[in-house]
Write a structure and sequence with these properties.
This protein is of the alpha+beta class. Helix content is about 25%, strand content about 30%. Helix 1 packs antiparallel against helix 2. The two termini are about 25 Å apart.
Length: about 90
């Protein structure tokens, strides 16, 4: 991650990320990540999801956010495409 003028740039390079996997992203909303920086975290996770073959028989993605308590934002079987998962992530 490179920092320049208070803008963070993250590069994600995944090669041949295939196979069957259940993956849950746990997003920290507790305040340890500044509110104005949280969109950077969201876009980083979105970039990871874009590199995956999201499908019920391939990669299933779940989303959980936590602060004082945990909240399930997306169940593993709730979304069948990476675009739907990313839309839920950004909501």
């Amino acid at each position: 991650m490179l920092e320049s003028h208070n803008v963070y740039v993250m590069y994600v390079y995944v090669t041949d990320c295939s196979g069957v996997i259940d993956l849950v992203f746990v997003l920290d909303k507790s305040g340890s990540i500044l509110k104005e920086r949280f969109p950077v975290v969201i876009e980083f996770v979105a970039s990871l999801i874009m590199s995956m073959d999201v499908h019920p028989d391939r990669t299933r993605i779940g989303l959980v956010s936590w602060s004082d308590t945990a909240e399930v934002n997306a169940l593993l079987n709730q979304y069948n495409t990476r675009e739907d998962v990313i839309q839920a992530l950004r909501a």
